[in-house]
Amino acid sequence: MVAILPTARWPIERPIPAGTVRTVDLPVMPPVSPMLAKAAKELPGGDGWWFEPKWDGFRCIVFRDLDEIVLGSRNEKPLTRYFPELAEALLRALPERCVVDGEIVIATPGGLDFDALQQRIHPAESRVARLAAETPASFVAFDLLALGDVSLLDWPMSDRRRALEAALDGATAPVYLTPGTTDAGLASDWFVRFEGAGLDGVMAKALDGAYTPDKRTQTKVKHQRTADVAIAGYRRHKSGDGIGSLLLGLYDDAGTLHHVGVATSFTAARRAELVAEVAPYEIDALVDHPWREWGNADAHDAGGRMPGAPSRWNATKDMSWNPLRIELVAEVAYEHLQGHRFRHATRLVRFRPDREPASCTYDQLEQVVPYELHRIFAL
């Protein structure tokens, strides 16, 4: 599945300073904001493109300098302490001095498990150690930013890929090289086939493109679907001006309404309009509301999937919400389901006065056939 690009600028001399290095000293130093992608509805046509699966995990840039490892996140905060098993594995798998861009994932026989990955971000050392053993993570590499004393940021992607393949030659689990191809037909097949494993879609990268930190110079094609959901509440925008997000619910077979995500990204004008549109549903909203006990921590621990749990990423973030009577239905656009929740925030398409909330069930959602990851991960 991994296509080897033609020989470019390899091998590279990698001079290693004498003595033991106790601080990272590399040609590309942390923190680095990773190169980003802009969304597209379809894969780009023509030649000159490299395609890869879009992994659904934590973006991570790894900095290795001899015995020192730093795992940097997309927001430039270190992830090292949360994944001690990966730090050890990366020391074994990577060249002695390098900077590698990739994704931290947790792979299971049922696909990638983002919920389990989120649980790994925990302040308690004992919890971190226990989860490292119970739900070990993997690292999927897809770009090389530096090797030895050489920065590769200005190199074409094709040369960086060739260098990455050579650098990871012989790497073993849990460190992997992402599959890649120049065949648009194969990439289109991946787009359909890999979704059942929890992958987000397909990335397209220009073969002659440099690595541009914090710039959207790549292309991503992700799955888009719509679903009818019950609107059960809302949160104010962080500015205090209007509605920032609508809280969405779906009913299971037993008639329980589960919190499945939010609809966000409203313009300032739309945020103000929504206040007036949902106001009639605020009257007596807590009477018989299925989520009125959301503040009870035991409800979240029991898997009730209600809103209001503290943010794992920002302990100071206000997660309070305003309930609405369960009478309003909306159509939302979503990418895919992760467990029983929408993986990413959805987009409000329209309200559906012609639909009853009771009709908003999981049964309407497209069931994606799982794709086994055993060809990539040893499961």
Care to describe what's here?
The relative contact order is 0.15. This protein has two domains: 36-222, 2-Layer Sandwich (D-amino Acid Aminotransferase, Chain A, domain 1), CATH 3.30.470.30; 225-364, Nucleic acid-binding proteins (OB fold (Dihydrolipoamide Acetyltransferase, E2P), Beta Barrel). The longest helix is centred in the middle third of the chain and has 11 residues, at 157-167. It is globular and about 65 Å long. Residues 1-22, 295-305 and 310-317 have low confidence and may be disordered. Strand 8 and strand 9 (150-151) form a beta hairpin. It has 379 residues and is an alpha+beta fold. Strands 3, 4, 5, 8, 9 and 10 form a six-stranded mixed β-sheet that branches. A five-stranded antiparallel β-sheet has the order 15-14-13-16-19. A four-stranded mixed β-sheet has the order 1-12-11-2. It contains seven helices and 19 strands.
Quick synopsis:
This protein is of the alpha+beta class and 379 residues long. The chain is built from 7 helices and 19 strands.
The overall number of domains is 2
β-strand amount? 25-35%
| Low-confidence segments | 1-22, 295-305, 310-317
The helical percent reads 10-25%
CATH class identity of the largest domain: Alpha Beta
CATH-defined architecture of the largest domain: 2-Layer Sandwich
Helix and strand string, N-terminal first?
EEEEHEEEHHEEHEHEEEEEHHEEEE
Count of separate DSSP helical elements: 7
- Compute the number of strand runs: 19
The outline comes out as globular
Rg measurement, Å:
23 Å
In CATH, the topology of the largest domain is named D-amino Acid Aminotransferase, Chain A, domain 1
Distance between the termini: 18 Å
Average pLDDT: 85
